[in-house]
């Protein structure tokens, strides 16, 4: 191997620091960015710069200085996160929180499994102790469908809660967000707020009721984000609603609650964290996203990598690689469990503001189509299931091999965190090096499929997988190295699924 | 020099990662912590652990398992921050933000200087364009006093704004927070919410009106915190109000607004950022703070260093050391200006949740007493002035020489960021090494006093300085290495001020 020229030696911190300089403030140095306007200076020349938001709506009218062929790129980013409380036993404080808020009609949202665990026991004790009036909805479905979400909304609307309290994993917290949203908009059509192009993607233009989220898995980071995901069965698509106003008021992260996760759930949840971190770290920079919004309310939560999300995402990446194997291996390793819960939350803040891209976009048809009725080992559910985290991570080697050319420095910094000696990696080898590191990490965890073939997919399924991925515009628009032309994009996705059949 | 045993070689990241492990999860290893209960495991043994918040109020009743002589230590931390929008020109979006919120009585708070600058020009244009009804209060005082704050409150109460919009430095944003607070509590006594023991320190038990903050300096980070500071003249003390509910709804960080800062203001503001980062990074860990609150509403915003604040504080430290000298030297270095604004905001999130300690506690009497009517060069004000950032940084070499023994690893990691080769530093030399690095950094900036003697203080002033520091309990309680006994604490503070006479 010959020594690399552009690659920063050793310390990840220095790489990160330099990368930010390169990525956000200097002319293009990445081979794949041939467009000379692909990178922007932080502060463009003053007179032509001033971005004046227009009052009319619609994407095209937002382009003030640009012809339709050259939409204006984004120039700002916005960082929003729930308040986070972290501490073993902090679940018991929730009754006082509700009392402090003056709550007297609390909708406690959970699922049948969590309803029997220590988390719900602590919640009930705490609410009862403070004399809080509440009702429990425990019919949330793992990997919610529109039908299960509608069922939950139908329960919530007549009760008219003044506060929502979600106790569970991402499915529960996401369902509670949607219950809150559609209770506050009683006349809205179900598709009004669902992400375009599947739904109408309307912004949530008023504050919702307070939502407190108590996660019982260390995975989705849903306690900090404004995103809620579900299966829209008639469209055979995973979709959702994403707006800052959906985010919980407070996330109570209590490591005693995640201690109840079986090892398989720990692994799948932790792989979701890994991909949240890797995808948001490598998403296109916010200032390459188009179009610039015409009103700040239209700035998406998933806005591309930015200097604040970077801090969260990279930190979460380091923690996950360090602590996830320990957390799975040893249920008594409280430090590792606790650090994984923290990593999940920090990654949530990172991707909640930067977004995810290909692993997540491709995971939705993987989980949804499941052609051989695969049921993941260690999951005690009465139906076939490719857990979300598994479906996300299974394509990660192929995805990052593909995206590495868009930003070799960032991908190399990630490879270094996996323990790779990156001092002599050539730029053109970065993708392969990172892919191998991820594949090895997955293999070492145990019980992870060695590609989508192991989940029952064959080449005959690839077209359907591609068609199931294409509607995920919200995440695909953040994918580096993906081309604008839809035919070309289709080919790229097809190649990605083929390459994801087995890890090399 | 002999090689150090406990010190981590080179990469700051590794040090940080390891330090967190040491600090939060392992038995004591610091020489100054002889109390075996000084460090806590993340997850204590289950049955004795469960922290049950009590409903009765008062610090002593919070101690469930402890005798009065052994108050229970904190076991959780809470992270809250304003939403942050960052981008050059983003000030122009504020009219649409207000419109989106349905605002129709906006109190725009600024000061006479900022009222003539580009920031206020952009704000007026934006509000006028959207047809927002507003009034401007431009009489905010730099380094506010209770009288100027009362004046502002008296203006706000009859106007009864539905949204506050602060455009200016920390003084303006802090004043706007207090206008908001006391407008929402029209019957409150001025001292009700002021930090104890000077005021009654009542918690802010309901949400206030929305506050949007547009900082025009890169310093206080007030756009992200729930803290408001002012001089209480009758008590000759800097004090303030600190509660999460005071924090702005949104901080709009626009590098075009900070470009108008004179070099001297850039330097002083940036030194405030430096100390926010250093102090919050070295504050006592949250789980060594006593007492554990009896209700989460009583958990202070300044709760000690915690794993999330660490990420922010250390990142801000690196940015400040890298970019502040460039930002001061060259007003056209837009990258450095922009990075300093970002660092100020990130440091705000860090110290806003972890707190500051000795530099800030000691700065209040330094600024307030100013015995020789010192006026800092480059400040165009009609009265004597030791700028806040100058009064904070001037004691930093003495402070960190003193605190280093409490946690040599963290102090060494900080020294490394200043560019010191730390590979051969002995543990007992860490304080001196960091002090020298800070003193050199200050000297290289230019126009910084070489200690408090250069600000006009002599040994005859030390008693008054100590007495002016002692009431700052909220920050002193977070100071590492400070003793509980008030006589001993007095001696320690006296020594600190004497050592701060000149930088060694």
CATH topological fold name of the largest domain in chain A: Dehydroquinate synthase-like, alpha domain
CATH class type of the largest domain in chain A: Mainly Alpha
Which sheet architecture does the biggest sheet of chain A show? 6 strands, parallel
CATH architecture of the largest domain in chain A: Up-down Bundle
Strand order of the largest sheet of chain A: 2-9-6-5-3-4
Number of strand segments of chain A: 9
Which two protein chains have the largest interface (Cβ within 8 Å of the partner's Cβ), and how many residues from each? Answer: A-B, 61 and 61 residues
Oligomer: homodimer
Count of discrete structural domains of chain A: 2
Report the β-strand fraction of chain A as a percent range: 5-15%
What is the number of helices of chain A? 18
Estimate the global geometry of chain A from the Cα principal axes: globular
- Please state the CA-atom Rg of chain A, rounded to the nearest Å: 22 Å
CATH H-level superfamily of the largest domain in chain A: Dehydroquinate synthase-like - alpha domain
Secondary-structure element pattern of chain A, one letter each: HHEEHEHEHEHEEEEHHHHHHHHHHHH
**Helix content range of chain A:** 40-55%
Give the averaged pLDDT of chain A, no decimals.
Answer: 87
CA-to-CA gap between the ends of chain A? 20 Å
Main location (chains A, B): mitochondrion
Keywords (chains A, B): Mitochondrion, Oxidoreductase, Transit peptide
Protein name (chains A, B): hydroxyacid-oxoacid transhydrogenase
EC number (chains A, B): 1.1.99.24
């Amino acid at each position: 191997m010959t020594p690399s020229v552009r690659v920063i030696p050793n310390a990840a911190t220095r790489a990160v620091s330099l990368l930010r300089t390169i990525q956000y403030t200097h002319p293009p140095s990445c081979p794949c960015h041939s467009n000379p306007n692909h990178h922007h200076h932080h502060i463009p020349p003053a007179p032509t710069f001033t971005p004046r938001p227009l009052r009319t709506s619609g994407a095209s009218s937002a382009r003030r200085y640009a012809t339709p062929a050259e939409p204006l790129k984004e120039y700002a980013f916005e960082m929003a996160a729930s308040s986070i409380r972290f501490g073993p036993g902090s679940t018991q404080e929730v009754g006082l929180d509700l009392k402090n808020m003056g709550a007297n009609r609390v909708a406690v949202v959970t699922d049948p499994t969590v309803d029997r665990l220590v988390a719900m026991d602590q919640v009930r004790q705490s609410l009862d102790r403070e004399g809080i009036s509440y009702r429990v909805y425990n019919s949330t479905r793992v990997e919610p469908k529109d039908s299960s979400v509608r069922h939950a909304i139908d329960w919530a609307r007549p009760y008219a809660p003044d506060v929502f309290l979600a106790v569970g994993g991402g499915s529960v917290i996401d369902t509670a967000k949607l219950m809150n949203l559609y209770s506050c908009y009683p006349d809205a059509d179900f598709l009004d707020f669902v992400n375009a192009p599947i739904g109408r993607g309307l912004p949530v233009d008023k504050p919702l009721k307070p939502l407190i989220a108590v996660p019982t898995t260390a995975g989705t980071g849903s306690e900090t984000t404004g995103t809620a995901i579900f299966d829209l069965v008639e469209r055979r698509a995973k979709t959702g609603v994403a707006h800052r106003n959906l985010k919980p008021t407070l996330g109570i992260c209590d490591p005693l609650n995640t201690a109840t996760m079986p090892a398989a759930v720990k692994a799948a949840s932790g792989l979701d964290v890994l991909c949240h971190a890797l995808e948001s770290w490598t998403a296109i920079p916010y200032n390459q996203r188009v179009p610039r919004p015409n009103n700040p309310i239209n700035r998406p939560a998933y806005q591309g990598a930015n200097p604040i999300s970077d801090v969260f995402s990279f930190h979460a990446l380091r923690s996950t690689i360090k602590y996830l194997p320990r957390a799975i291996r040893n249920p008594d390793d409280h430090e590792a469990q606790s650090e994984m819960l923290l990593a999940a939350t920090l990654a949530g803040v990172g991707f909640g503001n930067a977004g995810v891209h290909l692993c997540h976009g491709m995971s939705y048809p993987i989980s949804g189509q499941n052609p051989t009725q695969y049921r993941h080992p260690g999951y005690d559910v009465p139906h076939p299931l490719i857990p979300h985290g598994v479906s996300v991570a299974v394509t990660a080697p192929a995805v990052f091999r593909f995206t590495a050319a868009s930003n070799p420095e960032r991908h190399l910094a990630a490879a270094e965190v996996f323990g790779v000696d990156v001092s002599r990696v050539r730029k053109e080898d970065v993708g392969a090096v990172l892919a191998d590191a991820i594949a090895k990490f997955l293999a070492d965890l145990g019980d992870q499929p060695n590609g989508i073939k192991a989940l029952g997919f064959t080449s005959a399924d690839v077209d359907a997988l591609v068609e199931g991925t294409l509607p995920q515009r919200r995440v695909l628009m953040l994918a580096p190295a993906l081309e604008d032309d839809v035919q070309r994009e289709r080919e790229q996705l097809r190649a990605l699924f083929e390459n994801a059949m087995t890890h090399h």
